[in-house]
Design brief:
The chain is globular, with a radius of gyration of 23 Å. It has 447 residues and is α+β, with helices and mostly antiparallel strands. It is 56% helix and 11% strand. 37% of the residues are buried. Among the domains are: 99 residues, no CATH class; 195 residues, no CATH class. β2 and β3 form a beta hairpin.
Length: 447
């Protein structure tokens, strides 16, 4: 991260609500200012056009970035999961929230460390860097060296995040509805509930430590240690709000591929292989497709896997049904795909059934890399635009819009994220071969 902003995290429910209240005032003021500019020029813009002005979108993103926690996470999820529903300007600024947050000032950081570890906590370390090396929606990461000489990464949760999850979500939901920044008829409830569940998991750092151990065993036991590395968990130095992990050397993927663009194909092939293993073998998927969650150890060429707070576990029945849906979509078999999606819980309502053909089309489009012969060039395809264009037939009518079943929502988030990463890195990957190999392995595994 290049942005070094520090701002104190608002802790109490009242102070966090006040942050959103001040944002509502800013939105109203921006509407008046923007409207005045248009009226002076003889134009008469509608209220919706004024509400989604760049100033309002920027103020919303800035405020959520300062609040962190649930407020920021809801913004992140809306940016990813509402497709063409929200204005492009707002989506672009909310996108920034996925890898950008203000940092705690040192005084607030010290207060958290003393609360969690007690006075004299510094005796556990021979060195502790108070300058965070990363900051996101839930916490920030510091590099340290234990008294015994082992380098570690210490993730410190922002104060008040855990206690404010439910109230933050209610407040942000109300603000977005009342402000007009989103369509009035847009049903945010499925996204909101998934955000709530996910946030409570991510705010439990002991749980994330257990995930680190479980996921590390799955990766090492099934993929070997040649391709990936998962940080180790230091339970004795961790609390509910502090996660201590082994420090892993590595360079952010984006930086590596700026210097060595020729590595992009190999790296993305590994990440697709990992995803298919997560879904079909581990049945545990890290559902946050953020480039910042991966480093490359340039000496060993291993990919370092970070941030497992978004790990989600799937049952055997779900995995089998989703496997059937992917195969049917790859084969463009609409009848079998329709059956598979019904088993997954799609088309349960009148709204969903009305858009059945559109949803089938989108699934079949999304499976294009699975049936492409040879290496699929993500950097040159217009697949995302075609999916978006087909989806507009639903999103242009808010009454018809709906989210997938909860179990599918985060899985689609991961898959879409991999596609976007591959496009951003201009990668060419033989996804079809990787998929076919994983499906065969899955069939043998369940035989």
């Amino acid at each position: 991260m290049t942005d070094k902003r520090f701002s104190s995290v608002p802790r109490s429910r009242l102070s966090r609500f006040a942050q959103l209240g001040s944002l509502a005032g800013k939105v109203a003021g921006n509407v008046i200012a923007e409207g005045s500019k248009h009226w002076i020029r003889g134009k008469n813009p509608g209220l919706q056009q004024l509400l989604i002005s760049p100033a309002n979108a920027r103020d919303l993103a800035d405020k959520l970035s300062k609040m962190r926690g649930a407020a920021m996470k809801v913004g992140q999820m809306i940016s990813m999961d509402t497709g063409g529903i929200i204005p492009k300007e707002l989506a672009t600024l909310l996108e920034r929230l996925r890898a950008d947050a203000d940092r705690m000032p040192p005084s607030q950081l010290m207060a958290v460390l003393e609360k969690e570890w007690g006075t004299g906590w510094d005796e556990k370390f021979s060195r502790f860097s108070f300058e965070p090396c990363a900051a996101a929606s839930i916490g920030q990461v510091h590099k340290a060296v234990l008294a015994g000489g082992e380098p570690v990464a210490v993730k410190v949760q922002y104060p008040g995040v855990r206690d404010s999850i439910d109230s933050d979500i209610r407040n942000v939901q109300g603000l977005l509805k009342m402000s007009g920044l989103l369509p009035k008829d847009l049903d945010l409830e499925p996204i909101i509930e998934e955000a709530r569940t996910q946030l409570h998991r991510e705010a439990d750092y002991r749980l994330e430590g257990e995930y680190l151990q479980q996921y590390g065993e799955l990766v090492n036991g099934n993929l070997g240690e040649a391709g990936f590395v998962v940080p180790g968990y230091f339970e004795s130095h961790s609390t509910d709000s502090i996660l201590c992990m082994s420090w892993q050397e590595g360079v952010p993927l984006e930086e590596v591929l700026r210097i060595h663009p020729q590595w992009s194909d190999q790296i993305m092939a590994k990440l697709f292989e990992l995803f298919f293993a997560e879904l079909f073998v581990f049945k545990a998927v890290q559902t946050d497709p953020n480039l910042a969650n991966y480093l490359l150890d340039t000496e060993s060429q291993r990919i370092v896997l970070l941030d497992l707070g978004a790990l989600r576990f799937y049952g055997d029945d779900f995995v089998a049904r989703y496997r059937n849906a992917l195969i049917a979509a790859r084969d463009q078999n609409r009848e079998q795909l329709n059956h598979a999606l019904q088993e997954l819980g799609f088309f349960a309502s009148r709204k969903q059934s009305a858009n059945q053909d559109v949803i089938l089309d989108i699934f079949i489009l999304a499976a294009e890399p699975l049936r492409f012969g040879g290496r699929y060039h993500f950097g040159r395809t217009d697949l995302a635009q075609r999916i978006h264009q087909r989806g507009l037939e639903v999103s242009s009518n808010p009454d018809a819009w709906h989210t997938p079943p909860p179990e599918v929502l985060f899985l689609h988030r991961k898959m879409a994220g991999l596609y976007l990463m591959a496009a951003r890195l201009n990668a060419q990957v033989n996804v079809a071969t990787l998929f076919e190999s994983s499906v065969r392995s899955d069939c043998v595994f369940h035989a």
